[in-house]
Amino acid sequence: MTGRERFLNQMNGGAFDRSFNMEFGYWDENFTEWKIFAENGIKNNAEADAFFAFDKIASVGSEVWMHPCFDSEVVEHHQDYDVIINSDGVICEVQNTGHASIPHFLKSVITTPDDWKKVKEERFRLDDPARIPDIEALKTRHPAGRDYPLGIWCGSMIGKIRDMLTFEGLAYAAYDYPEMVEDMVETCCQLVEQSLDMLLPHFQFDYASGWEDICFRSGPLVTVEFFRDVVMPRYKRIRRKLDQYGIKLWYIDCDGDVRPILPYFIEGGVNCLFPYEVNSCAHPGEILDAYDGQMKIMGGVDKIRLAAGREEIRKYLDSLVPYVERGGYIPFCDHRCPPNVPEDDYLFYLDLKKRMFGLKD
After folding, report:
1. pLDDT per residue as tens digits for the range 112-124
2. N or C: lower Cβ tally within 10 Å for the chain?
3. Helices (H) and strands (E) in the chain — how many of each?
4. C-alpha torsion 62→65→70→74, nearest 10
5. C-beta neighbour count of 143 within 10 angstroms
6. Closest to 289 measured CA to CA, from 268, 320, 335
7. pLDDT tens-place string over residues 23-48
8. Global confidence as pTM
């Protein structure tokens, strides 16, 4: 089977000879701290994918977010951190020590409907020429006879809005200015719909992808009612376009405990979670059993278990066997693999995954 055939069959209910083999990537520190990367000149995730000979998977899309973005600039410099304005127009503190860390968001430049009106007119124009994809260049890069799966990017309905407003800012805005927030969601939907209309007729896509990251350990950052009434109807509009072109699989990258909003993901037409974080939610088998035939998963290999030694790695992969065999599930690390995973144990994991899921005898 080609990688494309294998992916389509594994995720859409057909027969497959072995599991599609992929990983989500690594922290930046891994490329300097792991000898296997440093000694082989591997400096990024794309090079790592080629080095490990993972199955190829690709995606295309056009500009469906703010354009132009804000110019990132440092507004204050301190010994261990800088205060910056980032590309989404958020003032935040970021460490300047060279270690990866999550920024501490302070304030958005958008707090009122007047702020949003100005930014929308300047940076969310549907008629921005930069939003028009170069179809011929994409066709050259991804020819019709390709042997790997190709996806289409469906953007974000609320996750990027959270990035633009900050978590606190979104919480206040949803209460103080609900019409403004819904207009933001509508704008995101229109941008994605426009992109789909330009791209869908020219390619035979194998899946659709999106990003939200609107959940944490205690559930969603927005109310379930908001997600149901404001976000889900926009998903339905996107799903109708995907259905017109026979795209069955649509995954959303959403960390945290997605269970409270999972029924509305499904009703909206999303049918796959990626890369599915385990510790803030549940073992992937719980979701796959509870929503058998309705929800699929890509990811879900607990990175905490990867750092807990080879016996724990073996036990965890054992627990995934029936779900891989059943289909609708591709196992890989449930986010970027962190540097606290010993590289020898990670190589053990990759080898064991191949042996257990049919990639080698």
Report:
1. 999 999 999 999 9
2. C
3. 16, 13
4. -100
5. 9
6. 320
7. 999 999 999 999 999 999 999 999 99
8. 0.94
